[in-house]
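Standup notes
- DV: blocked on the single-chain target, sequence here:
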Amino acid sequence: MDKDILDQFRTTLRRFVRERLVPLERQVADDDRIPDEIRAAFAEMGLFGLSIPEEYGGLGLDMAEEVELVMELGWTSPAFRSMFGTNVGIGSQGILIDGTEEQKRAYLPKLAAGEMVASFALTAEIGALAGTRQAVSYAAQALGNQASMLDSMGQQAQALALYDRLIGQFDSRTEDAVIFAVARAQVNKALILFRQKRPAEVLPLCEAALRKTGERPALQMREVSARAGLLRGQALVQLQRYDVAITAFDAVGARFGNAKENSLRDLAANAMSAKANAIGLRQSRGKVEESIGDLDKQITAAEAKPEPERSRGIASVLLTKGVIYTVIGMHDEAIAAYQDLATRYGDTRDAKLRETVANAGYLHAISYHDKGQSAEAARLLRDFVQRYKPEQSPAIQQLVNRAEDWLDKNRQYDSVG
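- DV (later): unblocked, structure below
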């Protein structure tokens, strides 16, 4: 870069650091989140592409030029530099060093523009593999799979450079090495999605990993296959597809239950434990369906009563149905029950009935959080607080306080919706 342009860039960055970033340090520390407008400003200045060649949309700085600029970030919290630091480092360099031209064209322009945030993951002790060309080659292969992140960038990242000591079991240029890299990345991403309660997205990743590893004899391949099968069954449980989940757990147990390796036998044992849990949930669901049938009869009986007993009775039953569904993890059914209650009585002037409606409104929002849609839960709770804050009822105010506490503890969703 021309020296005059570099000096001007450094001056602009220095002013930005002192005037914009330093005043935000406390907010970033409290919220554990960098504001979206700061990320946008970084992208506009080109910070995400400092080291990426110009032909791929970056600034193409050499090491000395990059150091001059990054030193300006030393005047503020390192959290700000971490927003683009991995794009500048391993996120792009792994692809530049050993990625295919197709990968370079697909990922580097997005990394340079800040449209994609890169990250890296360490799956275990790296040992002598760290920093080797073999590890970088593996990282580039895994990156092509867009697996999710495991480092400080966490769920904000969309590209992965993955270091794994187990790849040392394979020649980095063989078919097995690539299959292992991709399958392992798929299972890692599936695990993150499972923890986020996004089971529908878990299933295709696990099934793809199972197809890739197949009957390959290497221990590492079989471990990935066992983990994929176990995780697939757990995702099916989240979806309440208990019969299919039990079959998935049986498949893991049958294949690996008599393996010589302790790691595989442990995974098989976990599958059998998960199977027992799935059987219990299936039985519980049957009992729940019986209870729901009894509640439907109570609604029929309540409809014959005069007002306000009629409306209060039906609302109470609908609220109970929602709670029962929630306990068993049938969140869609719970949401439907709460919505039915709100549709029937959302505009009521009856004080007792209004408390029931408010209770259903709060639980309706929380149900979205329970099913992994926390952003929607936050939106609904903000609406809930706005609607019920003026109410005088102590019971409703207690619900408002709970909603505000939830929003305060989940402030990462403040800008959503």
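- Follow-up: The first helix runs from residue 3 to 21.
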